[in-house]
Amino acid sequence: MYLTNYELWRRKTWIVRRDLLAFAVVWRALRQAAKPLARAGEMIAARLREAQVVGCDETDARLSTDALGTRMAWEWVLVSDRAVLHQIRLSRGRDVLDELMAGHRPRC
Predict the structure, then answer these.
(1) Do the domain assignments include residue 107?
(2) Do 100 and 54 form a contact (C-beta atoms < 8 A)?
(3) Cα–Cα distances in Å, from 30 out to 2, 11, 24, 34, 45?
(4) Helices (H), 1-108
């Protein structure tokens, strides 16, 4: 089966439209979820601030944004018996813990 240039163009156009639509759906879902997810993150952080024992670790992660391009970032993970928080931050420093824990000093 041979396709004309027009038929090839139509198929390519359909594929591009399909991919753009999928991207738009994901983008919209993320935008709609941003506020509820931020509130959930604050609730999780509040539980961590009440815990007597909090485990913490960070590991490198690639972060790609339009404004910053691709650069190195850090995935912070804080764990207690009641909550787990994952956050990507540009800093690996203590300032991240100070902000997330808001002055709370767990026993361990």
Answers:
(1) no
(2) no
(3) 41, 29, 10, 6, 21
(4) 5-50, 94-101
Which pTM value belongs to this model? Answer: 0.67
Order across the sheet with 69-79: list the strands. 55-65, 69-79, 84-89
Whether 21 is covered by a domain: the verdict is: yes
Position 60 in a domain: yes
Give the total number of structural domains in the chain: 1
Domain that holds residue 66: 5-101
DSSP 19-42: HHHHHHHHHHHHHHHHHHHHHHHH
C-alpha 49/C-alpha 58 separation (Å) is: 18
Render pLDDT for 44-85 as a digit per residue (tens, 0 to 9): 999 999 999 999 999 999 888 777 788 899 999 999 999 999
Burial tier of 74 (Cβ tally within 10 Å: 0-12, 13-18, 19+): middle
Inside any domain, residue 106:
no
